[in-house]
Design brief:
Structural class: alpha+beta
Transmembrane segments: 87-105
InterPro entries: BBE, FAD-bd_PCMH, FAD-bd_PCMH-like_sf, FAD-bd_PCMH_sub1, FAD-bd_PCMH_sub2, Oxid_FAD_bind_N
Cofactor: FAD
Number of helices: 18
Radius of gyration: 29 Å
Protein name: Berberine bridge enzyme-like 21
Strand order of the largest sheet: 18-15-17-16-20-21-19
Subcellular location: Secreted, Cell wall
CATH architecture of the largest domain: 3-Layer(aba) Sandwich
Shape: globular
Length: 617
Amino acid sequence: MNTHSFRPKNKKSPRFYFICHFSPNFFLNALNISIQIWFQLTNTNIFRNIFSLSSVINKQVSTVQNTTRDPRRISISFHFITTMPRTYLSVVFFLLFLSLPLSSLSQPSHSVYNSFLKCFSMRTRTPQAQIAKNVFSPTNPSYTSVLRAYIRNARFNTSSTPKPTIIVTPRSYSHVSAAVLCSKPLNFVFKIRSGGHDYDGLSYVSDKPFFVLDMSNLRDVSVNIADQTAWISAGATLGEVYYKIWEKSRVHGFPAGICPTVGVGGHLSGGGYGNMVRKYGLSVDHLIDAKIVDVWGRVLDRRGMGEDLFWAISGGGGGSYGVVLGYKIKLVPVPKTVTVFRVEQYMDSGAVDMVHKWQYVGPKTDRNLFMRMLIQPVTRKKVKTVRASVVALFLGRADDVVSLLDKELPELALKKENCTEMTWMQSALWWDNDKNATETDPKVFLDRNLDSSSFGKRKSDYVAREIPRDGIESLFKKMIELGKIGLVFNPYGGRMAEIAEDATPFPHRNMLYKIQYSVNWKESSPEIEKGFLNQAKELHSFMTRFVSMSPRSAYLNYRDVDIGVNDQGKDSYKEGEVYGRMYFGKNFDRLVKIKTKVDPGNFFRNEQSIPTLPRKS
C-alpha cells in the first residue's frame, strides 16, 4: 500500500488521496473494524463522513470490478473532503492500519494463493515457477486430479463437496516446514492427508476455508534387515511397506492393516492393527523413532520432540500435534509357511451358535491364530437370512490349526480342505481378496490406483463381555430387518491383553473384540445415502446394551463424526471431550496436556482433533 498524501485546501476541508493496491474487500473490512473501534471512543458526528467514505469506496470498487479482468486484485483511487479535525483523522487511520491484519481472512483465494506461493518460495529458496509444480490452486489444470487421487470414499467426491483453497504436495521436509509456516498467518484449517482413507473424509474436507497437505510424494521405505528395522515415510502405503520388506526377507513382516492402499501416516498415528494383532499387538507397539514437523516448522526426531509428543503420535492421531513425516519401525519374524482359511455358515445352519461360541474362543485361543468374523444380511434361495464367515490367518501349518479348532471351536467344522498354506506375503495378497494369491506378483502392492466409486460409512464399538446367545439371535433378526449394514468382529487377547492401557494413547487393550459397522453402496442419491447412514445409526443404537459403557468406546481409525465434532470455538474442550473419551479413554487427559504444550494456538485442528485446555478466565 502507498502512504496517503495529505494536502489541505483550506483549514476546514483537508483533501486525502489514497492509492490502494490490495483487495477492496480487504480494505472495507478493515475500515469497518476501525469504525467499530472508534465508535467505542467517541459519539461525534464524524461517522457521517466516514460512512460516506465507505460509500464512495463501494462505488469505485463496483466501477473497477465491471471493467477489470481480475476483480480479485484491483487498484482504487479516491479522494474525500471532510471537516474532520486532523487529530480525529490520525486516530481513525491509525486504527484502520492497526486493524488491517484482522481482516486478512477476507482475501480471495487468488490473493491467498499468491501470498502463499511467495512465502513458500522464499522459505524453500526455490523459484516460484518450480514451486508451482507442488502448490495447486483451483485454477491449476492439475488441481482436480491431485485432489481426487486420494479420495477413497465417493461420499466426499461430489460437486457439492467443499474443496481446498490450496493443495500442497511436498517432496521434501523443507516443503512441509514451509507449508506449515506459510499457512499459519492465513489461519486456514490445515488438513493432512496420507492415503485418504479417513472414513469420514476429515483429512481432505472441511466446512471452513482449508488447505490440504498431501503427503503422497513422501513415500520412501528403507528396510535394514541386519538390524530388523525400517524407516517408513508418512506418504507410503502399507502395500509398499510389505513389498519392500518382502524384497529383503521372506521371514519378516510388520503387524499392520490388510488394505494395501492405506497410508502409513494416518494408520500408525491412529494406532494401527491387522491380522497379527493377537501375536504382536498394534503397529505402534513396534515404533522406535519418528520425525515430525511441529507448529514452529522444526523437524524433530524422537529425542528432539521428547517422550510426551512421541507417545502422543503413537496412536493419538498425528493431525493434532504436527505433521508426521515418518516412523522407524521394528520388524517382526514370520514363519516361512502360514495358513489362511474362510468358512461360512448361515442363520438356518448353525451360524448363531458359531458366532456365540466364537466369542469365547477367538480372543483366547493360540495367539498365532486370528479369526475375523464377518456378519452380513444376504438373500439365499429367495429367503432373507444372515451369513457368518470366519476369515483367518494362522502363523503355522494347516494341520495344526485344524487340530486346534477341532477341539476349541467344533461349531466351525473346519477341514483341511478349507485351508491354504502360503507365504506371509502371499497371505497379505489373499486378505486383499486376491483369489490367486499364490500366483500373483507381489508388485501389485505398488499400485496406488483405487476405484473410489463406492460410497460408504463406518462406525465402531468394543465388547468387554460376551453377548448372550439370544442377543446374537436378536442381532441377526435386526440385521435382516435393516437389510444392508454388515458387521466385522476383530478378536483381541494374546499380546494385546499384556500391554498396559496407557502404554500408548490406544486404551482398548483389555476388550474381547472390536466391532466395525460397515455399509457400502453404488447409487449416487441423497435419499439412498440417508437411508444407509440411518441403517448404520440404527444398528449402532441397537447394540448399546451389548457393548462397552462409560464411556462407550470407539476406534480412532474408524472415523465416525456421528459421535461428536468440534467447532473449535469457546466450547472446544467440552466438544472434544465427548469423542475424545470414546477414542482414548483416560488417556485423553494426557493428550490434551501435550496438545496444549506443543500447539497452544491450536493450529493443527480438525473436526475431531485433540483440543487444548480451556483458557482461564
